[in-house]
C-alpha cells in the first residue's frame, strides 16, 4: 500500500509539470514567475545519525526512536502548503511540486547504513538556482543524501524544455565517520554556556573539512554577489567549492554569532535592491560585511521578534522563521499570517504583504522561503555591490 500511495503521488506530480519551462533566477527579489513548492507527505522523524540527534520524549520520540510524523500534523502541513501553492498560482505564478519517495525505507552506500530518510518539504535546502543553472547541493545528513531524487522528474522536464538550462550536481559526499567530529553532541551538552560561545566564535561545529559540504539554503543571492553562511551543514570546503564553481560571481563567506547555525534564510534576507532584513540576535562576526552593505547604499533593517514564544512539537527550526519570507517582486512579499509585527514593518517600506498561514509546516523543515525553490524570475544579472572591500 505504501508503494501504491507514492506511485499515485508521482503520477499526480508529473501531471502538474507543463511544457516550455524556462530556468533563470539571479536574485531573491525579481518578479517570480515559476517556483517549486514542497510537500509534507511521508516526512520522517529521521533515525539518529552523526549529524542528527532528535530527542522528543514528550511527543513519543525519545533519542534513538524514529518514525513517520503524526498523520494529523502531516495533513495540516499539506493543507497549508497546498493553500500557499494556490495563492501563488492565483497571482499568475507557475507552481511545480516534488515527487515524494518512501522516506521510511532504510538506505545505504558502500560507507554507511541509515535506517530512514527525511522528506521533501524544503526544496530550498537541496536546489540552488543561479542564473540559468540549477545546482543540486551536497547535503550533510545521511538521511537527506537521496533527497535530490524527489526533484529529478522536474529537472528532467526542465532539461527537455529549456535548451539553455544547465543542470548541475555538486560532488556527492561520502559522509563517512571522518566527515563528523566524534562525540560532538555528547561534548556539546556537557559544555557551559561560556564554552559553547567559544566554540561558536571559532565556528567549531559538527562537520569537519574532510570534503566539501553545503546546503543550498545557506546561500543568499544578490546578483553578482553570493553570500554563503558557514554553519552546521556548510563548511569552508563547501564555500570554496562554490567559489570555484561560480568564477563569474563574488562569493562572500559569512558567519554569525548563533550557537548552532543552520541556514542563512533566518539571518539575512534580501528584500529588494538596497534593502536587506537582518536578524538582530545574530551579529555578523565579520563586521566588514556591514561596511560592504553600507558602502553600496544598502539599508540594513532589523527584524522584529516573532509573535510565537514556543515552537511547534517536533520542530527543530528557530522562532526566527518569521524572517523566512518569500519575495514575489520588489513590492510584494509573503509573510506567515500570524506575524503582525513583521507585516507592519514591511508595510512601512511600501510592500504589499500577503499573509500566508504556515506555522503548521515548520516541523517539516522551515518557513515560506524554505518551502520553495526558484525556477524563473524575470530580470538579468546585475552588480549591486560595485564598491568592493578587500578581503570580504
Layout of SSEs?
Layout lengths: L1 H14 L16 E6 L6 E2 L21 E2 L2 H20 L3 E3 L10 E2 L4 E2 L8 H4 E4 L2 E4 L15 H10 L4 E4 L14 H7 L2 H9 L17 E4 L2 E5 L6 H10 L4 E5 L13 E5 L2 E4 L9 H8 L3 E4 L23 E4 L2 E5 L3 H9 L3 E5 L15 E6 L15
Parallel strand pairs: 1-4, 8-9, 11-12, 14-15, 17-18
Antiparallel strand pairs: 1-19, 2-3, 5-6, 7-8, 10-11, 13-14, 16-17
Task: Please explain how this structure is put together.
It is built from 9 helices and 19 strands. The protein is α/β, with parallel strands linked by helices and 392 residues long. Strand 11, helix 7 and strand 12 form a beta-alpha-beta unit. The radius of gyration is 20 Å and the shape is globular.
| CATH class bucket | Alpha Beta
Major sheet characteristics: 3 strands, mixed
* Helix-strand category: alpha/beta
Biggest sheet: strand arrangement: 4-1-19
- Separation of termini? 54 Å
Number of domains: 1
What radius of gyration results from the CA coordinates?
20 Å
CATH third-tier fold name: L-arginine/glycine Amidinotransferase, Chain A
Summed up, the helix count is 9
Average pLDDT: 91
| CATH homologous superfamily label | L-arginine/glycine Amidinotransferase, Chain A
Strand content: 15-25%
Q: What general form does the structure show?
A: globular
Which spans of ≥5 residues are poorly predicted at pLDDT below 50? 1-8, 13-19
What pattern of helices and strands is seen along the backbone? Answer: HEEEHEEEHEEHEHHEEHEEEHEEEHEE
Could you estimate the helical fraction of the residues in percent? 10-25%
CATH architecture field: 5-stranded Propeller
Number of strands: 19
Amino acid at each position: 500500500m505504501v508503494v501504491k500511495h507514492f506511485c499515485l503521488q508521482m503520477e499526480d506530480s508529473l501531471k502538474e509539470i507543463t511544457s516550455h519551462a524556462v530556468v533563470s533566477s539571479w536574485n531573491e527579489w525579481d518578479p517570480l514567475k515559476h517556483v517549486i513548492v514542497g510537500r509534507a507527505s511521508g516526512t520522517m522523524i529521521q533515525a539518529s545519525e552523526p549529524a542528527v540527534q532528535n530527542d522528543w520524549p514528550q511527543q513519543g520520540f525519545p533519542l534513538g526512536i524514529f518514525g513517520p510524523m503524526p498523520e494529523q500534523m502531516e495533513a495540516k502541513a499539506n493543507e497549508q502548503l497546498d493553500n500557499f501553492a494556490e495563492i501563488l498560482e492565483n497571482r499568475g505564478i507557475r507552481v511545480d511540486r516534488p515527487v515524494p519517495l518512501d522516506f521510511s525505507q532504510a538506505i545505504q552506500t558502500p560507507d554507511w547504513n541509515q535506517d530512514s530518510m527525511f522528506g521533501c518539504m524544503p526544496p530550498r535546502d537541496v536546489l540552488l538556482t543561479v542564473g540559468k543553472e540549477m545546482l543540486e547541493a551536497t547535503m550533510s545528513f545521511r538521511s537527506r543524501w537521496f533527497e535530490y531524487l524527489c526533484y529529478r522528474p522536474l529537472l528532467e522536464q526542465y532539461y527537455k524544455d529549456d535548451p539553455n538550462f544547465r543542470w548541475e550536481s555538486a560532488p556527492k559526499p561520502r559522509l563517512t565517520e571522518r566527515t563528523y567530529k566524534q562525540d560532538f553532541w555528547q561534548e556539546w551538552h556537557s559544555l557551559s554556556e561560556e564554552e559553547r560561545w567559544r566554540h561558536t566564535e571559532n565556528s567549531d561545529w559538527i562537520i569537519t573539512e574532510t570534503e566539501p559540504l553545503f546546503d543550498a539554503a545557506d546561500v543568499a543571492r544578490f546578483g553578482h554577489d553570493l553570500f554563503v553562511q558557514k554553519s552546521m551543514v556548510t563548511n569552508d570546503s563547501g564555500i570554496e567549492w562554490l567559489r570555484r564553481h561560480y568564477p563569474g560571481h563574488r562569493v562572500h563567506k559569512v558567519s554569525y554569532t548563533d550557537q548552532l547555525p543552520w541556514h542563512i534564510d533566518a539571518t539575512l534576507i534580501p528584500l529588494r535592491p538596497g534593502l536587506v532584513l537582518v536578524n538582530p540576535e545574530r551579529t555578523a562576526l565579520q563586521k566588514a560585511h556591514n561596511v560592504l552593505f553600507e558602502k553600496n547604499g544598502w539599508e540594513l533593517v532589523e527584524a522584529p521578534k516573532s509573535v510565537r514564544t514556543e515552537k511547534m512539537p517536533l520542530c527543530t527550526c528557530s522562532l526566527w522563521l518569521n524572517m523566512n519570507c518569500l519575495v514575489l517582486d520588489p513590492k510584494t512579499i509573503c509573510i506567515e499570517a500570524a506575524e503582525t509585527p513583521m507585516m507592519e514593518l514591511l508595510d512601512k517600506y511600501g510592500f504589499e504583504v500577503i499573509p500566508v498561514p504556515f506555522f503548521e509546516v515548520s516541523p517539516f523543515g522551515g518557513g515560506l522561503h524554505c518551502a520553495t525553490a526558484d525556477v524563473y524570475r524575470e530580470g538579468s544579472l546585475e552588480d549591486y555591490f560595485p564598491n568592493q572591500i578587500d578581503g570580504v
